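Quick one, probably user error.
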């Protein structure tokens, strides 16, 4: 089996091991040395009967933020949920709770990125007061508290607002979901906030919840 199509059947079962696997995958991606694990026919067949992902990645829908690529993952490795601006709603909470409670996934990552369009639009609305039409308004309203908090802290640029929004979103998962909160309190799950840099591909840890917290 070539390195480009190797399968890795050892799925991390602790938050620390899951974070380490993601860090290693991102480092390979940044260096241009991705292994593309678990992407061959054998892996496809082995996961057909069920899934055992080691991480939930809740990220922005931006086309440049493909989680399996930037963390060098394959089939069955990550349970991925995406909305514009990584905005939480009931469906998002239910999806993440399913992974935590039913699949035993030990790590939940909230993944934001620089130059986020949804946060940029919210930033512009905060300045002008002009709301967009349709359901985009709901996105703006949910992101606005983070933008305003960043401004109160003296941070007026979009990327600072993205970091603040990533932190607040990670905290809201615990505040709004008893299932996630209990799993974190028991040490079975960690919730981390990560800021992704589009140009160099680095995934930077900016926030964390849990009895285990990763080294930055």
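Nope, works fine. Designed sequence:
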């Amino acid at each position: 089996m070539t390195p480009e199509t190797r399968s890795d059947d050892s799925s991390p079962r602790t938050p620390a091991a899951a974070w380490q696997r993601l860090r290693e995958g991102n480092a390979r991606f940044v260096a241009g040395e991705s292994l593309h694990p678990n992407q061959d026919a054998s892996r496809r067949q082995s996961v057909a009967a069920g899934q055992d992902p080691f991480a939930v990645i809740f990220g922005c829908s931006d086309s440049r933020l493909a989680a399996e690529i930037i963390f060098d993952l394959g089939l069955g490795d990550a349970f991925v949920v995406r909305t514009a601006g990584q905005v939480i709603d009931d469906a998002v909470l239910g999806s993440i709770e399913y992974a935590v409670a039913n699949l035993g996934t030990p790590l939940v990552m909230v993944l934001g990125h620089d130059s986020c369009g949804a946060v940029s639009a919210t930033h512009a609305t905060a300045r002008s007061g002009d709301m967009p039409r349709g359901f985009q308004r709901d996105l703006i309203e949910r992101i606005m508290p983070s933008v305003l908090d960043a401004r109160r802290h003296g941070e007026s640029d979009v990327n600072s607002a993205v970091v603040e929004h990533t932190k607040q979103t990670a905290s809201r998962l615990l505040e709004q979901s008893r299932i996630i909160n209990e799993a974190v309190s028991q040490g079975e799950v960690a919730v981390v906030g990560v800021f992704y840099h589009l140009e160099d591909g680095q995934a930077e840890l900016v926030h964390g919840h849990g009895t285990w917290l990763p080294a930055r």
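Confidence is low (pLDDT under 50) at residues 1-7.
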